[in-house]
Amino acid sequence: MKQKNKNGNPVLGWLQMNLGPLLGLLALCIIVSLLSDKFVSKDNFLNILKSVSTNMMLACALTMVIILGLIDISVGSTVGLAGIVCATLIGTGRYPIWMVILFCLGIGLVVGLVNGILIAHIKIPAFIATLATQNIGRGLCQVICNGAPVRCSEEAFTRLGTTTMSGGISITVIYSAFFVVLICILMYRTKIGTYLYAIGGNEMAAEYSGINVKLIKMIPYLIGGFFAAFCGVIWTARLGSGSPTLGQNFELDAIAATALGGASMSGGIGRIGGTMIGVLMIGVINNGLNLINLNSFYQLIVKGLVVAISVIIDVMRKNRAANKV
């Protein structure tokens, strides 16, 4: 799906498609800059980019799920599970780093595969299926490490999450940009993106048109599991340890970002560009609350309100559109 304006300019088309989220981001930046004079600085902007890099990957993958009209609340626990397994294996010193990373990415793919099978083939509601895998993942985290953090301070590994590139850009931002580009190619340069929108808009019609609905439904969950595991590895490298609580509420950040970006929770509507802006909005909110020294618990309240308000607006928009028909 190419985003062009009437004159065929893709940049103007993208701006028009994402004007609402862009204006929201601009308004947030203005508000935070008025509340704190530390906001407008190169170092702070780079810090925001670093802080949102993993959520950018998770939210873009989740956008594909939401376009289908489904949900995935297991990504946070997958982040934690991959992280704790990674820290445990590297901490033993018995296995090459590359082998451990591949194994952890495999864990993410398995979680995604299980979610996909439960939802697409067994037809368990997405919320229930991913709630189950979320709890299993959290339980495994506690079992593997007995509820305690696991250190893995091997320098060759920690550099994967702590290296700073030229210009002060964190390497995690580079990872994020790379994977987001891949998602955009998949969504807007292949038939998979078209199929996702078709299924989210009308699953029965999509199936009658010859689309392999079960297979297409599994793809976003596989990608989400892979991205979540990768984020778990990167967070573990950044922190130098694995924690059984790593990834808690990551799914809330990702859902909030997609909602702010204009995705419809009922499916058929959503844009990667909008989600990217939504991720930046969440980053600005968190950064602003930190700059004015508000307790981190307020961040959860704000993000919960953001999700609720975004869903209410989406429902109102759909009701208004239905009344016009």
Automatic annotation (TrEMBL):
For this UniProt entry, which segments traverse the membrane? Answer: 12-36, 56-85, 97-122, 167-188, 218-237, 297-316
Spell out the GO cellular component terms annotated for this protein, sorted alphabetically and separated by semicolons.
Answer: plasma membrane
Subcellular localization is given as: Cell membrane
- Keywords in alphabetical order, please: Cell inner membrane, Cell membrane, Membrane, Transmembrane, Transmembrane helix, Transport
Membrane topology summary: Multi-pass membrane protein
Molecular function terms from GO: transmembrane transporter activity
Question: This chain belongs to which protein, by name?
Answer: Ribose ABC transporter permease
- Protein source organism: Enterocloster bolteae 90A9
